[in-house]
Known about the structure:
Elements: E1 2-4, H1 10-23, H2 37-42, E2 46-52, E3 55-65, E4 69-77, H3 86-100, E5 105-111, H4 115-123, E6 127-128, E7 141-147
Parallel strand pairs: 4-5
Antiparallel strand pairs: 1-2, 2-3, 3-4, 5-7, 6-7
Amino acid sequence: MITAERPDSPDAKELIDELTAYLTPLAPPESQHGYSVEKMMARNVAFFVMRSANEPAGCGGLELFGGEYGEIKRMYVRPVFRGQGLGKLMVNHLCDHARANGVNSVRLETGSMMTDANALYERMGFYRIPHFGEYKQDPLSNFYEKRLD
């Protein structure tokens, strides 16, 4: 089950903190682009928590950039829940949310070392693009887009 929640709800904050702790040792600070809870709130990121057997299993957000594109933010599935198709379920949910808000493409940035995440996005029809928006070219980042039309 996926529900819309504020990024500062207890379950959302716990998942975001867990994701941050996981990612922090993988890249230097200048290559870490995840939004804080406060930044997600300030930028009106639509945020969702996924539960399995009533346990918080993962999360993901979508920031809309006008009618141009939506950007997936803070996508995460807890390790114990991986391999059950929950990541795909969340990505599909975020894409559906983008479509419902009149957006025809979804973009994201993920670490180049995140091989499972990169593979998931590519299997789901995302393709590599150059850096976009506020991002700068970074050898530790991969940038993706998926057209929704």
